[in-house]
Amino acid sequence: MKTFLLPDLGEGLTESEVVAWRVAEGDTVELNQPLADIETAKAVVELPSPYAGVISKLHAGEGETVAVGAPLIEFDVDGTGGAPAAPADEAAPSPEAGPVATPEAPEATGEQAEAEERSAAAPAAEEPAATDGAEAKPEKVQVLVGSITVHGGKPVRAKRAWEVEPFVREEKRGPNRAMPPVRKLAKDRGIDLQAVRASGADGLVTRADVEGHGSAPVAAPASTREKVTGLRKHTAAAMTQSALTVPHAATFHQVDVTETLALAKAGDASFLALAARAILLAAKRWPDVTASFHADTNELERFAHVNLGIAVSTDRGLVVASIDEAEAMDASALTAAIKDRAVRAREGSLSMAELTSSNITISNVGVFGVDGGIPILNPGESAIIALGAIRRLPWEHEGQVVLRDVCTVTVSFDHRVLDGREAAGFLADIAAVLERPALALAR
Amino acid sequence: MSLTMPAPDPQLALGLDHPLRVLDLDGSRLPSDVLDPHLTDVDETALTNLYVDMVRVRRLDTEAFALTRQGHLVLWPPLLGQEAAQVGPARALRQSDWVFGSYREHGFALLKGVDLAEFARVWKAYAHGGWDPHEITMAPAQIIIGAQSLHATGFAMASKMDESDDVALACFGDGATSEGDVNEALVWASAFQAPVVFLCQNNQYAISEPVRVQSGTPLALRPTGFGIPSMRVDGNDVLAMHAAARIAFERARSGGGPTFIEAVTYRRGPHTTTDDPKRYRDEAEVEAWTAKDPIERVERALAAMGANMDAVREEARIRADELAKELRHAAEHAEPPTVDSIFDHVYAQPTKRLERQRAEHRAFTASIEGNR
Amino acid sequence: MTETLTLAKAVNAALADSLEGDDRVLLMGEDIGQLGGVFRVTDGLQARFGTQRVIDAPLAESAIIGTAIGMGYRGFRVVAEIQFDGFIYPAFDQIVAQVAKLRYRSKGRASVPLTIRVPYGGAIGSVEHHSESPEAYFAHTAGLRVVTASTPQEAYSTLRAAIASDDPVLFFEPKGKYYMKGEVDRTVVRDLETASIVAQGRDVTIAAYGPTVETAMRAAIAAADEGIEVEVIDLRAISPLDVDTVVDSVRRTGRLVVAHEAPGEGSVSSELITSVVERAFSSLEAAPARVTGYDTPYPPSAVEHDYLPSLDRLLDAVDRTLGRRSSRDGLVLEGAR
């Protein structure tokens, strides 16, 4: 058995049509006897028989289009019939025959379309494997912009003769660039090019920049600029607004909080919650500390409840989370509420109402190890209380100098709403309860 | 054919009105004052040899044509109908004379002694050249139309400088006469009286274009304007072609300078196996020329001379079959070129640049799993 | 409205529409009339527009171009066909010494609105002189526009633009893609000097033109399997070359591979890489790479697929620019420095 594959009958053709058969299955034919008329894109041509023998099968009907490299005719050349041979002609050199054969073998390159091109270019009888590709359906493949129609399946890369390392995209490059010798210098010295101060235009790092890096006094940039977005941008705007429109004043008080701290350690209320209780008790006596001044209408707005804001520092910036109607809460409930606000502030899951409803704020700056400062008022509020770090200090206590736990409490206030006397009174009341928590029973 | 322009010197061109012919269509011998003196030694045996040569050339051509349709060769420019126009002059050459032909000069190649195994590789796209030019004294087949006419002229000038009597034969077609190269070759050959013979096989078509697109005069008149004598010969008459070539070669060898021969013939097949002649000419025209078949004409002549035609035909058939078998075997079993050979023979010595590319390509090939 | 055409038919449509739209357009070339061209690209045009407008030329390439110059003086727009790339050299003098320079030496008072169509490139399994890529010879000559096409749509629109141009244009048709089918919208207008980004990617830029664009696109698809994003630029114009588009791309990707069928020495890739290095040197993360025909004559077509840029050769070059393992790792060249 011999299988005859349709060859490229003109330069670079991909397919041809069988116009007419001049023989039928079962006919005995001579070598070079005309078998069919084949129409290509260029001409109708006569196909002479490549073998003497019996036609055992015609693979295409008249009018049918056949891909170059596809089987066209089966011949029984030895008169024995038998099983159809693989579509490899004995005339075809075996892939091992020549040192060249390997790159031509489609399975070696792994790329069907090129195999198809090859089959179009080379005598079809020599490219039996190309028939698979020739029969595959064209497929449109999108390539981000536009698309191409691929024949013979999706293009695939040939398997390489080594184990391929996965491709890892480099981190996005920083703004710094450098000429190759400078890059090499940086690499040789183990210097990250992006950490080097670039003296050239558009982030160009020079040889001198790399050579100066590290050995010279820290060549930190004189300044850097970073785009401010999101919460930080919002905080910036709010603080600016508050600082520029509200006449701030502040007052301080060093307080012996030994007893309150002992209370916190003994019970389930946190020191911060106990301090909040002290503030809430003081606020009851000085209600204007939760009032809001409206400059546009020269009105003072007073609130029925104390919505206690807790300032929380997060990765994204500062937020003030409100514990509404805090005056009704006991220390234990406040402890839970403060913890809840802190967690959710860091998660970013606070509601807009929780972020905007406070009317007085506590800022626990002591966690940063400082004793105090003058906090800027949360916009719309009249007082903000900063709690400093608790320190063991020598302190006069009951006529003796002993080590006591001491905390600086600061109140910043809107001087349009409160004057010094009221602010000092408010602060003194806070301090009194913190010093002697038992006083709370009386207030 | 009538003339549309007067010849500058009509004496220089022979056969303008009727192509020179000594064998009539029916095989009878026609007298020719010009050609007969050069055919005195051509007897039945010599004519039989020419006959066998033509049958072999035809068989080479038809087998190669079929091999192309069967996918064993990639392209073939057939010469069917032009056998006499090649065999006649080829058998008038000495081995030391050089042929500078186009891509259709298979008859010359065969009679010059080409190795078919190497020859087949060209048309299988395995090689660019099909023979050793110095071994068979024939330049590589030329695809660029007419370019070889200048090479032939240069060879002839050199032969003259060497005081050799080797001549050069430039073969081209009717279409080539339009190319600058051919016209420049005529200028040079005339100016230097070079021993070159220009054989124009006017097969009536340059691919699809009939000869009237190339010329308003018989092509044989053209060289007279350059001062080159010419003959217009029946290209399907092997004896006339043989005699005309003898005249031209003798003139060249004896210092008489160039000669132009227009062989009036016909390409009965397509330009190449990718062509479709039905688009540009009638079947009737092909049939008319088939009736002027150069081989049948000689068969009739030999029969008229009393030859044993059965024996002659049998001998020709056997030799043609041998040739066809050899060609088929060559086409089917040719070893493909190695990829490495891409880089061979670009310069006399390999350059560093090419050696680098060769190494890079080897490395690339080896990078594909399963190679080497 | 679009229609599905082969690239050859798209060229035919562009010629037909140009002939239809301007009666000073005419075609000249060998076998383009009655035969319809050796690739049947001009099929039916002589029957439709007559022998005065679709002219079968004598076999004289120099004369085809030379006479077109004369016709240009009388306002004809000649579309000349050079039958095969390898046959253009007899016309070389007329193209580079005459066509290219007429506007310059006449101080703009005379010009040659000539389009020279050249089927070029390989992969058709043909014999010598039928598979060459001679575009660099012409790109080197000032005054000529040299363009290519990569798809039927590009062929249609770019050829229309070439014929309409008042400059002489060499239009190189990728004959290996003549039977490539694609959608063609005849209203799409293209210019003669802008490259197109035909695939976007972040990792490597491949710049190619003509028949090699499809190979580059296939490489981009295959590379995506490994997570590598390849940006593919169809240069379209070889001269003048759209360096801006390539420089912009390289500033983003940092890596460049240039591919074409023509040999690399003194080629379009030589020019393009030089220009990119001049303008975007510090953006390059790796040395540019190229995949071209080797610096040999076009080989016998039995081995042409080793000579031509292939998907795997392209990706090997991509790997090289990415610093990944490539076939050249460990390649030791005797006597090389």
From TrEMBL, chain A:
Enzyme Commission number(s) of this protein: 2.3.1.-
Residue ranges constituting the Peripheral subunit-binding (PSBD) domain according to the UniProt record: 177-214
Class of the enzyme per the UniProt entry, highest EC level: transferase
The UniProt record lists the keyword Protein biosynthesis: no
Record keywords, A-Z: Acyltransferase, Lipoyl, Pyruvate, Transferase
Residue span(s) of domain Lipoyl-binding: 1-76
InterPro entries: 2-oxoA_DH_lipoyl-BS, 2-oxoacid_DH_actylTfrase, 2-oxoacid_DH_E2_comp, Biotin_lipoyl, CAT-like_dom_sf, E3-bd_dom_sf, PSBD, Single_hybrid_motif
Biased composition (Low complexity): 83-99, 120-133
Residue ranges, annotated region (Disordered): 79-138
Family annotation (Gene3D superfamilies): 2.40.50.100, Chloramphenicol acetyltransferase-like domain (3.30.559.10), E3-binding domain (4.10.320.10)
Pfam families (UniProt xref): 2-oxoacid_dh (PF00198), Biotin_lipoyl (PF00364), E3_binding (PF02817)
Cofactor requirement: (R)-lipoate
Entry superkingdom: Bacteria
Family: Belongs to the 2-oxoacid dehydrogenase family.
Alphabetized PANTHER family for the sequence: DIHYDROLIPOAMIDE ACETYLTRANSFERASE COMPONENT OF PYRUVATE DEHYDROGENASE COMPLEX, LIPOAMIDE ACYLTRANSFERASE COMPONENT OF BRANCHED-CHAIN ALPHA-KETO ACID DEHYDROGENASE COMPLEX, MITOCHONDRIAL
Protein name: Dihydrolipoamide acetyltransferase component of pyruvate dehydrogenase complex
Annotated organism of origin: Agrococcus terreus
UniProtKB/TrEMBL annotation, chain B:
Key words, A-Z: Coiled coil, Oxidoreductase, Pyruvate, Thiamine pyrophosphate
Pfam families: E1_dh (PF00676)
Keyword Coiled coil: yes
Domain Dehydrogenase E1 component stretches: 54-335
Cofactor dependence: thiamine diphosphate
Tree of life domain: Bacteria
Gene3D superfamilies, per database record: 3.40.50.970
Parts forming coiled coils: 295-333
PANTHER family: 2-OXOISOVALERATE DEHYDROGENASE SUBUNIT ALPHA, MITOCHONDRIAL
Name listed for the protein in its UniProt record: Pyruvate dehydrogenase E1 subunit alpha
From TrEMBL, chain C:
Pfam family, one: Transketolase_C
Name of this chain's protein: 2-oxoisovalerate dehydrogenase subunit beta
InterPro entries linked: THDP-binding, Transketo_C/PFOR_II, Transketolase-like_Pyr-bd, Transketolase_C
Extent of the signal sequence: none
SUPFAM superfamilies, sorted: Thiamin diphosphate-binding fold (THDP-binding), TK C-terminal domain-like
Residue span, Transketolase-like pyrimidine-binding domain: 5-180
Keyword tags: Oxidoreductase, Thiamine pyrophosphate
